[in-house]
Specification:
With 309 residues, the chain is of the alpha/beta class. The chain has helices spanning 44-51, 73-79, 95-105, 114-124, 137-149, 167-182, 217-222, 236-244, 270-280, 295-307; strands at 4-13, 18-28, 33-37, 59-64, 67-68, 80-83, 155-159, 186-191, 202-207, 210-215, 228-232, 249-255, 258-263, 287-291. It contains 10 helices and 14 strands. α4 runs antiparallel to α5 (137-149). GO terms for molecular function: ATP binding; ATP hydrolysis activity.
């Protein structure tokens, strides 16, 4: 039995004028660390709200821990831990007061579930008397995760949990998720950060409410269907503009130090063709090479392919 299952979920807002979730289907296996990867506005939060039974889909069906999100919502709420994207704990309560409140809601206690939250709780307990509103981003993150785990959920739903925290806190958080997975908890996490996709066992790429691909990170990269070129010059902005006006180029986009180039018709002299064209328009110190694609490159490719349909 899958821990999470969505079948043809559709959700609109503004009387049907805005499509937030467009015929989405995917499954999360029991004990899996699964990532929902996409930018802001892709539909990730709507999916999480449907799975946590606080939002009804217009069409389709979904289940969590084997229970239907509409008919058996009470059973789901006792078995799911949810961490929303925006910090939603009580700012005026201390760390300990927040934890004790959520423990009381689920008729349990910190002591009863200490074995599960130990590694996280031990990091924040020295500040038990500090109000939640006065905590750093990383500490708020750990407190919210502790509160989501206080009742030993079967499934943990984390909606963009690392947004707005520093790189060190992001790494610590993913290390905590790996520890939780080893304790048998199923984890569904959403993120706009493509580099975090590699930390999941499987991922679903989502854009404009549509699922573009569901696979392991490795297989998504392997499926990239064309040769990818990286290019840079003394003036990358001019180089990018020139390539976008070149008929032989199918796609050109910025990505860090090097821009990415995809040509329409691949042949052995593509690098020479691109370099000659760039230098013809006055670009200096042009460097072009073939590179291995990343998950972000695959996401852009699939998004463009979907947009052209």
């Amino acid at each position: 039995m899958d821990a999470v299952s969505l079948k043809n979920i559709h959700k609109t807002y503004d009387k049907g004028n805005v499509i937030a979730v467009d015929d989405v289907s995917f499954d999360v296996k029991k004990g899996e660390l699964f990532g929902l990867i996409g930018p802001d506005g892709a539909g990730k939060t709507s999916i999480f709200r449907i799975l946590t039974t606080v939002l009804l889909a217009d069409k389709g069906s979904a289940s969590v821990a084997g229970f239907d999100v509409v008919k058996e919502y009470r059973a789901i709420r006792n078995r799911v831990g949810y961490m929303p994207g925006k910090f939603s704990l009580y700012q005026d309560l201390t760390i300990k007061e927040n934890l004790e409140f959520f423990a009381t809601v689920f008729d349990t206690s910190i002591e009863e579930n200490y074995d599960l939250i130990k590694n996280i709780y031990d990091q924040i307990s020295p500040f038990n008397d500090r109000r939640a509103g006065k905590l750093s981003g990383g500490m708020k993150q750990k407190l919210a995760l502790c509160c989501a785990l206080i009742h030993k959920p079967e499934v943990l739903l984390l909606d963009e949990p690392t947004t707005g925290v520093d790189a060190v806190s992001r790494k610590e958080f993913w290390d905590m998720l790996k520890d939780l997975k080893q304790q048998g908890i199923t984890i569904l996490v959403s993120t706009p950060y493509m580099d975090e996709a590699n930390l999941c066992e499987r991922i679903a790429l989502i854009q404009n409410g549509k699922i573009l691909s569901v696979e392991t990170p490795e297989n998504i990269v392997k499926a990239f269907p064309v040769t990818l070129y990286a290019a840079k010059s003394d003036n990358n902005y001019k180089l990018l503009t020139d390539f976008r006006n070149f008929d032989a180029v199918a796609s050109a986009y910025a990505s860090g130090e090097y821009m990415r180039i995809i040509v329409k018709d691949e042949h052995p002299d593509s690098i020479t063709l691109l370099k000659d064209y760039a230098e013809k328009f006055g670009n200096r110190n042009v460097e072009i090479k073939i590179i291995a694609p990343t998950i972000e490159d695959n996401f852009i490719w699939l998004s463009q392919k979907e947009a052209n349909h």
